Backbone:
């Protein structure tokens, strides 16, 4: 059974940092495109970052240079290091897995598995 469990969210002031973690169980970690999405109140869910089986990464323009996605294959863990946080980064952040060899443009409809989400709140 596949399960994704996020942790590491919280409240931080603008300019601060947080590191999100996602514990992945089930036989998908080394073959799926792993993603982080976020959703703010009243907005659509958007892709933030992605990493494929070859560890190639991709980022939304709004977070490039500030966020870093990584994974630890030995621990079946996915991470999102978030630096220089802004109030507009406030959202629920979701770990997600897509059955794809490469990470193409993010689309929530193509996600096979979701985590339950972790809240990130950035105050000005």
Residues:
């Amino acid at each position: 059974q596949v399960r994704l469990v996020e942790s590491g969210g919280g409240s931080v002031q603008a300019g601060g940092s947080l590191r999100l973690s996602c514990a992945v169980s089930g036989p998908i970690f080394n073959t799926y495109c792993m993603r982080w999405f976020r959703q703010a109140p009243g907005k659509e869910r958007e892709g933030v970052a992605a990493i494929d089986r070859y560890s190639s990464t991709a980022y939304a323009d709004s977070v490039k240079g500030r966020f870093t996605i990584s994974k630890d294959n030995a621990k079946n863990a996915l991470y999102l290091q978030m630096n220089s946080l802004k109030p507009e980064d406030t959202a629920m952040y979701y770990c997600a897995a897509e059955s794809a060899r490469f990470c193409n443009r993010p689309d929530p409809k193509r996600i096979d598995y979701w985590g339950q989400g972790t809240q990130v709140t950035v105050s000005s």
